[in-house]
Specification:
- Keywords: Acyltransferase, Transferase.
- The structure is a single chain.
- By secondary structure, the chain is of the alpha+beta class.
- It has four helices and nine strands; from the N terminus they run βααβββαβαββββ.
- The protein has one domain: Aminopeptidase (3-Layer(aba) Sandwich), CATH 3.40.630.
- Strands 1, 2, 3, 4, 5, 6, 7, 8 and 9 form a nine-stranded mixed β-sheet that branches.
- The longest helix has 15 residues.
- The model has no long low-confidence stretch (mean pLDDT about 95).
Amino acid sequence: MKVRPFTPRDADAVFEVHRRAFGGQTVESYIVQRIHDARKAVVSLVATVDDQIVGHVLFSPTSVDDHGASVELVGLGPVGVLPDRQGQGVGSALIEGGIQRCREAGVDAVSVLGDPGYYARFGFERASDYGLGNEFGVDDEFMVYPLHGGAVDDVDGVVTYHPAFPKAEE
């Protein structure tokens, strides 16, 4: 398996990866498509096996109503892996590779909305413990991973994702 940056020629295959990974739903596929079309992807990686795209992860900009603190926080997701490749480390490789690229790009922290048991193994912690809320109305499932010491210590507020993401009421 190889992990490499997304290129525009990957768009159709990535759309299909997310559609299949999410049981035929296309919400995640369209989120990825809209963020790429808007040129707002901070990090976008694909995993390939024998030159076939089997997984994709996206990191996109967020904003924080932070009462004056300055922080570069990005959101992880969607991450998708073809069903027949799940459980083989593809998602982990994409997430770890993406976090490393975010760190290299000077990002302060990464947020994610997902399974706490899964994302804790990458270093994510409950965001509300840092004073960070979210627009989706969840607590334990909304997590943050500071990429350096003190990255979000002086930040509190609501993290807002790119408009491509559906809001809680949608």
